[in-house]
Amino acid sequence: MASRRAPMREPIAAVAVWLAVLAALTIGGAVWVAASGASYQDFSVAILVIGYAPALAALVAVSVQRGIGGLRTLLGQFSRWRVKPGWYAVAVLAPLVFVLAATAGVALLSGSPPRAWIVAPSADQLPALLGPIIAGSLGEELGWRGFAQPRLQLRQTALAAAVAVGAIWALWHMWPALTPDGLAQLTPADTAQTFVRLMGTAVLYAWLYNGTRGALPVVLVAHAAHNIAIDLTAPEVLDSAGGWIIAGLYAAAAVLVVVLTDPGTLTRRGRGPAPARS
């Protein structure tokens, strides 16, 4: 009987290890930033540790759980890129559509045309933008979708797993509150907006991941495309109603996915089970 229960406990034990390491790296990095007197917005080794914490925690948890073989399987998800081009089109275009819709919405609310639909970064800004784009995809998605989503959906529906991952993801994004300047700038509205957007995004990314049978590169592209789209958006749009419009669009798209798919797998109805655990 014990041998039958072990496989069911194994994913949850691995997730518990992942959460513990994720919390240690994130809190430790935030304390490091605060102790150094630096801003949470400045690049540093501590910020790098925080940015890659989800992926690093996944590597540790899989090493503890399954050793070298498990690491090969986890990292092997990066090679699952051969899927229908439509998936990549959705991953790239959806964030751009959302930010353009937000820009249009802000223009309608203000009664004046936008200063610019797209704000191209200057050459000296490009290096600073590469960090969030790379860390946001490589540093995070191996943890959120490559590790947590497939393990949690072994014991619950893919939708419930995505909501749980989204809540953890949003809470992790609150780490600047552990630094003096971050806490001063974080408002209840910012927190609410982050939770709405990321929980909606988590459902969309789980749909991308499960719908492509675990093609992690598609999710990496989607995450990077979102960060690029945000970088191309005028600051006044994001600082006004635009942020909430983007969050609402991600939430609405997530609801549409739930309506059109099987909540158990977040794949086309009748397609079959979600991807096996990585």
Overview of this protein structure:
This protein is an all-alpha fold. 73% of the residues lie in helices and 0% in strands. It contains eleven helices and no strands. It has helices spanning 2-36, 45-51, 53-75, 85-110, 126-152, 158-172, 180-185, 188-211, 216-231, 235-238, 242-260. The protein is globular and about 55 Å long. The relative contact order is 0.15.
In short:
With 278 residues, the protein is an all-alpha fold.
Per-chain topology:
Layout: H1 2-36, H2 45-51, H3 53-75, H4 85-110, H5 126-152, H6 158-172, H7 180-185, H8 188-211, H9 216-231, H10 235-238, H11 242-260
Helix pairs in contact: 1-2, 1-3, 1-5, 3-5, 4-9, 4-11, 5-6, 5-9, 6-8, 8-9, 8-11
Q: How widely separated are the two ends?
A: 25 Å
Average pLDDT value? 90
What would you call the structural class? Answer: mainly alpha
Q: What's the SSE pattern?
A: HHHHHHHHHHH
Large-scale geometry: globular
Give helix % range: over 70%
Radius of gyration: 19 Å
Total of DSSP H or I helical runs spanning 4+ residues: 11
Largest sheet: none
* Beta strand count: 0
Give the strand content.
Answer: under 5%
- Given as residue ranges, the uncertain stretches (5+ residues, pLDDT < 50) are 1-7
Oligomeric grouping of the chains: single chain
